Each structure stands twice: as C-alpha cells, then as structure tokens.
Amino acid sequence: MDNLKKIIPNACTSLNLLFGMCSLMYTVSGNLTGGALCIFLALVADGLDGRIARFFGVSSELGKEMDSLCDLGSFGVAPAMLAYCFYLHNFGYVGQAVAIAFALCGMWRLARFNVNTDVVHGYFMGLAIPAGACVVASSALLFSALSVPIVEYGYAYPSMIAILSYLMISRIHYPNFKGDGAEKNYGVAKVAAAVVFAAVVFFGQAAMPYAVLFAATFTYATFGIINSLCALFVKEEQE
User: How far apart, in Å, do the first and last CA atoms of the chain sit?
Assistant: First the structure.
C-alpha cells in the first residue's frame, strides 16, 4: 500500500511530461490548438501531483526533482515551440532567439525556485513558469479563434513572449494564492487587474472560453508588475 501511495503522485508527475510531449507532437504536426490544450492538461497534472503527495504524506526529493524536469519540458520547451510555430517563425533569427530565450528563462526560473525554497516565502519571485506557459498557450488559442491579423502588429507578439521570458527570471513578486498575507496586494493593482481582465474578455467575447483563459493568465502576469510598481511608489513616499 505504501508503494502505491508513492506511485500515484509520481504517475501524475509523469503525466505532466506526457502531456508536454503530446503538446510538442501536436505543435510540430501543425495542430496548434491541440498543442495549446495539452499545456493546460499538463498544468492540471502538475497541480495534482504535489497535492496527492502531501495528502498521502509521501513527498520526496525524487518527486521534487521529477517535477522540475517535467515542468521544463511541459512549460518551458513545449510553449516555446508553440509560440515559434504559431508566429515567431516569421521573424527569422529573432523569432528563434525569442523562443529559445523563453525555454532558457524557464529553466533558470525553475532552478532558482528550487534553491530558494527556504528563503522565499509567501510569494513567487518572478512569474512562475506554468503561468508563463499558459499565457503563451491561451494567446495562441484566442488569437487563432478570432483570426487576429497578428502580422499587422509587427513585433508585438515577439515582444510579449520576450517580456514573459524576462518576468520569469525577474525579482518581481507574484501572489502565491495561499492566503498567508506575506505579500501585500494593493487596491490600485487589483482595480487595474480587474480592468485588464474585463477588457480582454470584452474584446475576445466571440471566443469566450479562450478569452477567459487568456484574460486570467495575462492579468496575473501584468498584476505582478503593477503591484510591484505600487510597492515601489509607497516605499519612496515613506522615505
């Protein structure tokens, strides 16, 4: 029975990478919708493994290492390839560099998270790699569903992916949703986030499910920036 308890969370971790591989295979075969959806399925598997391990009391160093390795594949490499096949390939070496940077920054983010687990509490330092991956996946789903003429916006999409890459390795604080109150979330940032969410949903209402997915992930990515600016402003006012 004890062995079974250990196998179940590790199986969920493996399922994470399985979906990451499926995402890559769908993407390179031209099925970008399938590639994007598999990233979200990997997110579900990633969320289950830790919870199941804690429920059974079988958390282990092996499980933690497996989790990081699988995350790099599912949330680093898979979304980078998705972004490249979706639109970055139109920018030649620049597009290649941006896609590679996303995967590299994801690796850096995971490594830093692992070594800072005893130092950083109550928040995420930098955008979590699953969050960055979900912005990429949801943007591909929404823009495809709406037939957004991305080419008319020039370097807007590559810039978004580059900014996401930077956010993952930045020191910007993001809420961890554990309700411990360790990181203050300012009212101005919450209002701004609500406006961003509503605006995305409004403009993407023709593809509502994808609009909500993109609105949620994009709003979270921008919230950390706005909240950090608010914290910086308050700090300067106090000084």
Answer: 59
How far apart CA 67 and CA 127 sit, in angstroms, is 17
Per-residue pLDDT, 3 = 64
pLDDT score for 186: 87
pTM of the prediction? 0.91
And the tokens for 5? 């308890």
Amino acid symbol at 81 = M
The neighbouring-strand residues paired with 173 are 125
Amino acid at 159: S
CA distances from 74 to 42, 89, 193 (A): 7, 20, 27
Report the Cα 179 to chain-centroid distance in Å. 20
Q: Consecutive sets of 10 residues in the chain, 239 residues long: mean pLDDT of each? A: 69 91 97 97 88 72 82 97 96 96 96 80 87 97 91 90 97 77 79 95 93 96 92 71
Q: Are 149 and 90 in contact (CB under 8 A)?
A: no
Q: Which helix or strand (DSSP H or E) is residue 220 part of?
A: helix 208-238
Backbone angles phi, psi at 181, to 5 degrees: 70, 15
User: In angstroms, rounded to a whole number, what is the distance separating the alpha carbons of residues 35 and 25?
Assistant: 7
Q: Quick one: which of 119, 125, 123 has its CA closest to 183?
A: 123
**What's the CA gap between 232 and 228, in Å, rounded?**
6
125 DSSP assignment: E
